[in-house]
Protein: Copper resistance protein D domain-containing protein
Organism: Zoogloea dura
Amino acid sequence: MKFHHALLFLHLAGVILWVGGMAFAHFCLRPAALELPPAQRLTLWCGVLGRFFRVVWLAIGLIVGSGFAMLGATGFAQAPVAWHAMAGIGLVMVAVFASIWFGPWQALQQAVAAESWAQGASALNRIRQRVGINLLLGTFTVAVATLGLAV
Ligand code: HEM
């Protein structure tokens, strides 16, 4: 096993945690949670997202750290276009996640603590939209990385 393989393993572990977690939240948890009354639904999401978002910070560390280590070892000038595209979209995904963390995620926690369910629902909706953007970007990035669309 080469060092590159270990980095690729850490990279993909991060991608699986982040993109897989978003897919689970969007396609499985959300439809089930919609059947709950607002107080229970928003309290549940607060508990779920608090845990998931800490996992996402770990995943970001793994993906960005290993990604740039692999890119740097090959050389930025020699790296295929697909790797540059992946790095660019990956950094946009990190920016979108940071905008969730510092924006609607803080608002959701405050709304749940104050039992302001209307504000909480609005904050959760903004989180849902941005997670949806990152789910699309993440899926597209995996396609760029694997399908040979750019060399
Ligand atoms: C943030 C900056 C990122 C950098 C600098 C980066 C860089 C890299 C590099 C250099 C490789 C090695 C490719 C190879 O050995 O063939 C790689 C593989 C891969 N990356 Fe990224 N990446 C980043 C983000 C992402 C993101 C956000 C995703 C998906 C959501 C992703 C998905 C993948 C996949 C699926 C592979 C495996 C491709 C293969 O080996 O065929 N990467 N990445």
Observations:
- The longest helix spans residues 38-74.
- The chain is about 85% helix and 0% strand.
- Residues 8, 11, 15, 19, 63-64, 67-68, 70-71, 83, 86-87, 90-91, 93, 138, 141-142, 145-146 surround protoporphyrin IX containing FE (CB under 6 Å).
- Residues 11 and 91 are 14 Å apart (CA to CA).
